[in-house]
Amino acid sequence: MNKIKKNYKCLIIYPPNQLMDVETPRPDGSLGPLYLASALEKVGIETEILDASVGGKDYSLNDTFYRRIRQGNGLIRIGMNFNEIADYVEKGNFDFVAISSNFTPQTSMAFKTAEAIKERNNEIKIFAGGVNARNLYHRFLKTGNFDGICLSEGEIIFPKMILASINNYSVSKIPGTITIDKKGLISINPVDKSCFPNQLDDLEMPKWEALPFEKYEKIASPHGVNVNDRGAERYAPIMTSRGCPFKCAYCHISQEKDNASMFGNIGNLRTHSIDRVIKEIDHLVSLKVKKLFFEDDSLLAHKDRVKTIFKKTKNKKLSIANVNGVNLVHFFNSRDRSGWVDGKFDIDVEYLEILRDSGFDQIVFPVESAAKRILKLYATNKVNLDRMNLPLLMKKMTDLGIQAPVNMMIGFPDETEEEINMSIDFAKILMDNGAPYVTFFVPIPFPGSNLYNIAINGDYLDKNFDTDKMNWKNPVMKNTTVSPEKLIEIRDKANEIINTKEHLKKRLINSAGHRFAEQIN
C-alpha cells in the first residue's frame, strides 16, 4: 500500500459514555483504535486519537469525565458534549473521522457524535468500525451520517477506505466494507484474503503513545474497577492473540465463526509470536506502564507458549490482570490422568505459579453457570463441573495471592429458577474458598451473537429494540422462563447474600449514580 503525498488527517474517536446509575464509569482506551492509528500512519495519514470521555489535552477531567449529565433516556452521560467534539474536529482540520463502536449500549453516543460533526461540516468523511458497528450497520448507515462501515478487523481495510476516498474511488468497491448510496441502497462487499495479514505479527504495534495516560492514571478505573489504593498507576491494554477456540452463544465470536464468508477467519484463535509479545511488553515498560491488562478472548490457550511468555516477564516488575476471563480448563492437567483424584482433573499448580511469578494478581474466573444444561446450550460446554474442581482451584489461586473474581450469568431465555439458584449456590461455595466477589451478569442478546438470533427468532427480543437498554445489568429479553422482574429480584438478593458489605459499598461509592448525586449536592 503506497503512501500519499499530501498530508491528510484522521481523528479516531472513542465517543462519550452513557451509563446506568449502578455502573462504574471508566475511560475507554481499548486496543482497536491504537492498532488502527499505527496502520493509518504507515500509509501517511496523520492520525490522532480522542477519548471523548476524558477529552483532549486542553480539557480537564472535571469538565469531562467527572461531569455527569442526566439524559432524557434516564442514563448518565460522561465526557465531552457533542458540540465540543465538533469543535475539536473543526479546530484540528481533520479530513476523516473514524468512530469506534464495540458496545451496543453506546450506539446512540456514536450516532450523536457523527451527527454533530456532519452538521458542522458535511464534507468530512466519517467511517465506523467495531463489533457493534458492523452488526448494526443498517442502523448506522440509515442515519445518513456515516460514509462507510468496516466489516471486519480494520488494520488493512480501513486505510484502503481512506485512500479510496482521497483518490475519488468508490469505497463500496473495497472488500470488507458496507456502504450506502444516495438512493439509500446498502452495499455489502464481503472480505477476501486481501483484508487480512498473513500472520498477526505483520501488523504494526499499537500506538499506545496516543493514550492520555496521565488522565487515566488519575481516574484509576480501567474496566470499571478501581485497580489500586496506592494512588496513580500507569496501565495499558495488550493482546497476545485474537479469536477463541470456543463458540459461546452470548459472544460475537459465535457469529463470526458461523459467517466466515462475510467476516473472514477473525473468530478463529490466532496468536502473536512469543518474540512479538515480549517486544510489546518491553515497549510498554519503556512508556513507564506498571500494570498490564490482557484483553485476549482466550489468553491461556497453548500452554507451552503462554508459559514461555510469562516466564520472560518474571523480572519486569509488572502487575498483570486479564479482562475477558480465561478458559478455566487450562488450569488443569486434563490429559494426564496420573494426578486425578476421584475422577477430577489435577490442577496445574506449576502453571499458576508461573503466572503469579510473572506479576498476575488478578485473573477473572468465568464459571458462567453451575447448571450443566445451560453450559452445554450456551457456553460450548467449556466448563466441566464433573471433572474440574473449581472450589479447590479457587483456593489454590487465593493461596498463591491471585485474586479471582467470579463471573456468573443468570437469566438465559429458557433458564429455570432452579438452574439460576444452582449458580447462586455455587457462587457461595467459591466465595467460601477465597473469591473476592461475584458479579451476576444478565445475558444480553447483543447483535452479532447467536443469542441475538435465538432472541429474535424466539420472540424474546423485538427487532426494533432500544440499544440504550442493552446493558449487562438490565434484562431486555421478554417471554423468558423467569420474568425480567423476577430476575432482577433474584440477582439483587444474590448480591446481598453472596458479596461482602465492603464490596457492595465500594461498588456504590464508585457508581455513576452516586457520583452524580455528589455532583448535584
How do the helices and strands line up, and which of them pair or pack?
Blueprint: E1 8-14, E2 17-19, H1 31-42, E3 45-51, E4 68-70, E5 76-78, H2 82-91, E6 96-100, H3 107-120, E7 125-129, H4 131-135, H5 137-142, E8 148-150, H6 154-166, E9 177-180, E10 186-189, H7 213-219, E11 235-238, E12 241-242, H8 253-258, H9 260-263, E13 270-271, H10 274-286, E14 291-294, H11 303-312, E15 319-322, E16 332-333, E17 346-347, H12 349-358, E18 360-362, E19 365-368, H13 372-378, H14 390-399, E20 406-409, H15 417-432, E21 438-441, H16 450-457, H17 484-498, H18 501-510, H19 512-520
Parallel strand pairs: 1-3, 1-6, 6-7, 7-8, 11-14, 14-15, 15-18, 19-20, 20-21
Antiparallel strand pairs: 2-5, 4-5, 8-9, 9-10, 12-13, 16-17
Helix pairs in contact: 1-6, 2-3, 10-11, 11-12
Mean pLDDT: 93
Strand neighbour order, sheet with most strands = 3-1-6-7-8-9-10
Largest sheet: 7 strands, mixed
N-to-C CA distance = 56 Å
Q: Count all strands and give the number.
A: 21
Enter the CATH topology name of the largest domain. pyruvate-formate lyase- activating enzyme
CATH class of the largest domain: Alpha Beta
* Backbone structural class: alpha/beta
Q: Point out poorly predicted stretches.
A: none
State the helicity in percent bands.
25-40%
| Beta content | 15-25%
**Outline, from the CA principal axes?**
globular
Number of helices: 19
Question: Which quaternary structure do these chains form?
Answer: single chain
Rg, nearest Å: 23 Å
What is the CATH superfamily classification of the largest domain? Answer: tm_1862 like domain
Second rung of CATH, namely the architecture of the largest domain: Alpha-Beta Horseshoe
Q: How many structural domains in the coordinates?
A: 2
